[in-house]
């Protein structure tokens, strides 16, 4: 896919629904009692994997445009689940299947099959779950067993791990408490509470008691992780407005980075949509300063690091990103793939064990980006090429369909 240099980039963008919230709205409603309508759902390949798996467990799900109609199946049947490229699907469903006491086998594509699953399986075993991984990875098998509530301290600040434990705990005897080292995104806690779960949050500690879920309608705000590409283009090339973006405080680390880098932006029409804060985000072309990021901020912007790295290349001076070792186990090793992307466009980026050092010069030449079939590398590369001197090409560009099927059409402003 060729990406032209566009030194002037302005416009208003309707970004698709939040991926994390869409996964949860489909999954939790499909496992609950009653019927629900999920509007503005993101129906990229990852969330369609969740739809496919929930149908396999017995839910009745119909899709019409961006709206999903769900008739829940609280009593799961045994299932074979192909989770495609989606870590959220596999990890959350491992917990849900354990709590529902069914036989389930989870498989994924080559990328997902190389990602760690013991980080979910091990804490679930502490509740009594019977789970087998294959050398720590997929295929993963869950077998029926009695679960007992426990206090679990997770090693990584991961919303996927936390959510899997909370979902299993709904089917355990007694109370479960999850304590994480840093607060990860809290969409699960918000949605389970709206669905009638007995759940309490105290800082980084979440307690849940067993119980049934009741379906709720969800209107999904736009995904700040998708908006981030168009926000970055506003900062680099003109002015952009992304409408109705989810600004849950566990997701807005990129706005703190904007503050530090000197990016001019504003949040307008701030409101609450289905228990989640949302706003229109306007970003204007700015003189960028380098930034130093450390591990505390990582959970709130982990998926945005590749595009933040692009911004660092356009800042003048040395930026340092530390404490980001989780990038090594994403859809690709994003420490390596981000560094390669910037280097192949003429940037100066040195990968480290837990991040990068980027010596920004204020511009990138352009060239050819290898996406390694990682949607966030392809989209970050496309932003870099759009703001570059010469533009260039993305290899394996189709992978954006995982989370943002309309991405290139919006970039070329052929659709809004
Ligand atoms: C997600 C959590 C994050 C994020 C992923 C989506 C979620 O992963 O990177 O894209 O929806 O819970 P971790 O839980 O591994 O940090």
Describe the fold and architecture.
31% of the residues lie in helices and 28% in strands. The chain is an alpha/beta fold. The chain has 2 domains: 2-16 and 221-411, UDP-n-acetylglucosamine1-carboxyvinyl-transferase, Chain, CATH 3.65.10.10; 19-210, UDP-n-acetylglucosamine1-carboxyvinyl-transferase, Chain (Alpha-beta prism). The strands form 6 sheets. It has a 4-stranded mixed sheet, with helices on one face. A 4-stranded mixed sheet has the order 4-5-3-14, covered by helices on one side. β10, α5 and β11 form a beta-alpha-beta unit. α3 (87-100) packs parallel to α5 and α9 (305-314) packs parallel to α11 (375-387). The protein is globular and about 60 Å long. It starts with a strand and ends in a 5-residue tail after the last helix.
Ligands, ions, cofactors: shikimate-3-phosphate
Task: Tell me the major beta sheet.
Answer: 4 strands, mixed
By helix and strand content, what is the structural category? alpha/beta
User: In percent, how helical is the residue content?
Assistant: 25-40%
List the helices and strands and how they pair.
Blueprint: E1 2-3, E2 9-13, H1 19-30, E3 35-39, H2 45-56, E4 60-64, E5 67-71, E6 79-82, H3 87-100, E7 104-107, H4 118-126, E8 130-134, E9 137-143, E10 151-153, H5 159-169, E11 176-179, H6 187-194, E12 198-202, E13 205-209, E14 218-219, H7 224-237, E15 238-246, H8 253-261, E16 264-273, E17 276-284, E18 292-293, H9 305-314, E19 316-321, H10 334-344, E20 349-352, E21 355-361, E22 367-370, H11 375-387, E23 392-395, H12 407-411
Parallel strand pairs: 2-15, 3-14, 6-7, 10-11, 18-19, 22-23
Antiparallel strand pairs: 1-23, 3-5, 4-5, 7-9, 8-9, 11-13, 12-13, 15-17, 16-17, 19-21, 20-21
This protein binds shikimate-3-phosphate.
Residues 20, 23, 88, 158-160, 163, 184-185, 302-303, 326 line the site of shikimate-3-phosphate (S3P).
